[in-house]
Specification:
This protein is α/β, with parallel strands linked by helices and 497 residues long. The chain has helices spanning 26-37, 58-65, 104-113, 122-135, 147-159, 196-202, 254-264, 322-329, 334-342, 377-397, 415-423, 481-494; strands spanning 11-22, 42-45, 73-76, 80-81, 139-140, 164-166, 168-169, 206-208, 211-219, 222-231, 238-251, 275-277, 282-289, 303-305, 313-317, 346-353, 358-363, 369-374, 399-403, 464-466. It has 2 domains: 11-52 and 100-135 and 193-274 and 440-494, 3-Layer(bba) Sandwich (FAD/NAD(P)-binding domain), CATH 3.50.50; 142-167 and 279-429.
Length: 497
């Protein structure tokens, strides 16, 4: 059985390790595996539960597996919820298992930001991607688990001559139950708690859940450890206190959690900590078909396409269970009953953009995330353009009407009419959502513009390393979990021990 933590985590204790890693998601698991395989004594601390608490209920998922109960909302151009994972396995527990490699043009841009350092160039990253894809069983979603919702997108993109198809996912045992965002009920998804963390544990790493890190300890100008509170999984009552002394402190709490912790620790002066937030914002388009679809059956987000005329816009399947689908349709009362009858015939696609707008993360007095985000006007237009193309794909794939969660938009049988209606809407009319926070502790060669250097080590605080999506120098443009694992693996393998 894989070691999960201390036999008794209550009371007060102090531990000495080589490396303490804060966070156990894609970044934390990958860097822990890399360091443990090198012989380092590694302790992984995770705020969330030590084991997945699956239930097909969004309130349940928010409570146990989303940071701050799923209530992180960015203020600014509007109000936009931002999802961040929680629990041993982090965001990999509740994501859709999508695994895109980092686009080459993005990595080429990173090399420029890193002053010509080519360690993350496409050729250097390729063997790490190969390795992780083999470990995680990443492969193209098979037809037998696609479901009609995904097939509509594939048919529509093919009919319009657009690149796309079935998505590559780390779900080798997928049965197409459509519940990935709540956790996998059958263990078919190769989330990092099932793959990378067990490898780390086999090399001696200790993984401790229910441990919320509250402070990075700094002595004589060096990070030397962390302080944490151990809490009960269900009541959140504090049951223990932990001090960890370590030669290296690795933060991998995500692009919200990492800067939040640094600011709470009084370390917001380590450069642009929390600045430059990117989130891949977007909206959705729904289609109504004459035939039965049942959008919650089949692989969650199992298909994608792109329009070469819209670089940085990535539409992929939207899969919703009945409750959230009804909420997205909007009406209440008698109108809700009519909407209920539409559910079996709905298909959907989410439009995600690589954003040029930015935000920032700070910490409130009680340690919660304080997030703001401002849209660049052209980003809003790019979302609208992506929604237009997506409406065309859905109709070409089998939908007879299209609609969207945009205030007062209505339903349309004509894409031009749909597009004209979108054109009159402001960003505040959109039901926006973001699930890929990144770039808040950026990597770069210039200490005035970056928090860490190419090795992952902080420019202004020896002993501190960051290894999660917060280090991305730019917006990624694709779902980030595979990139996060690859970058964290490379950081873990290069760190001096």
């Amino acid at each position: 059985m894989t070691p999960r933590g201390f036999a008794d985590a209550t009371g007060e204790r102090t531990l000495q390790v080589d490396v303490v890693v804060v966070g156990s998601g894609p970044g934390g698991s990958a860097v822990s595996r890399a360091l443990a395989e090198r012989g380092a004594k590694v302790l992984v601390l995770e705020e969330g539960p030590p084991k997945p608490r699956f239930r097909p209920s969004m309130p349940h998922t928010q409570r146990y597996h989303m940071q701050e109960g799923g209530l992180i909302v960015a203020r600014g151009s509007g109000f936009m919820p931002i999802a961040a994972g929680r629990g041993v396995g982090g965001g990999s527990l509740i994501n859709s298992a999508i695994c895109f490699r980092t686009p080459d043009h993005v990595l080429d841009g990173w090399a420029e930001v890193l002053g010509g350092d080519a360690r993350f160039a496409p050729a250097a990253m390729a063997p790490v991607f190969d390795e992780l894809e083999a470990l995680l069983g990443i492969g193209t979603t098979p037809d037998e688990v696609l479901g009609e919702n995904n097939r509509i997108i594939i048919r529509g993109a093919r009919a319009l001559g657009l690149p796309g198809g079935a998505v590559r996912r780390n779900a080798p045992g997928c049965a197409g139950c459509g519940l990935c965002n709540h956790g996998c009920p059958i263990g078919g998804k190769a989330s990092v708690d099932r793959v990378l963390l067990p490898i780390a544990a086999a090399h001696g790493a200790i993984i401790q859940g229910d441990a919320r890190v509250t402070r990075v300890i700094v002595e004589r100008g060096r990070a030397v450890g962390v302080e944490a509170r151990i809490h009960d999984t269900d009541s959140l009552e504090v049951v223990g206190a932990l001090t960890v002394r370590a030669g290296t402190v690795v933060l991998a709490a995500g692009a919200i959690g990492t800067p939040r912790l640094l600011w709470s620790s009084g370390l917001g002066d380590l450069g642009p900590v929390g600045d430059g937030l990117h989130v891949h914002p977007g909206n959705a388009v729904l289609g109504l078909c004459d035939h039965e679809v049942v959008m919650w059956r089949g692989a969650t987000q199992g298909a994608w396409f792109e329009d070469p005329a819209l670089p940085g816009v990535l539409p992929h399947t939207l899969s919703l269970p009945p409750g959230p689908a009804l909420l997205m349709l909007g009406p209440s009362g008698a109108a809700a009953k009519a909407s209920h009858e539409l559910l079996p015939n709905l298909c959907g696609c989410v439009v995600m953009i690589s954003d040029h707008g930015t935000g920032r993360v700070r910490a409130t007095a009680d340690g919660r995330a304080d997030v703001t985000y401002t849209f660049e006007p052209n980003d809003v237009q790019r979302i609208k353009d992506g929604m237009r193309t997506t409406a065309s794909v859905l109709m070409a794939g089998g939908a007879r009407e299209v609609m969207a969660p945009v205030h007062g938009l209505g339903r349309y049988t004509d894409v031009d009419a749909f597009t004209a209606a979108l054109a009159t809407r402001d960003v505040t009319d959109f039901t926006l959502y973001a699930s890929h926070p990144m770039s808040t502790c950026r990597m770069g060669a210039d200490p005035s513009r970056a928090v860490i250097g190419p090795t992952g080590e902080a420019h202004r605080l020896p002993g501190l390393v960051i290894a999660d999506a917060s280090v991305f120098p730019t917006s990624l443009g694709v779902n980030p979990q595979l990139t996060t694992m690859a970058v964290a693996t490379m950081i873990g393998r290069a760190l001096p021990l």
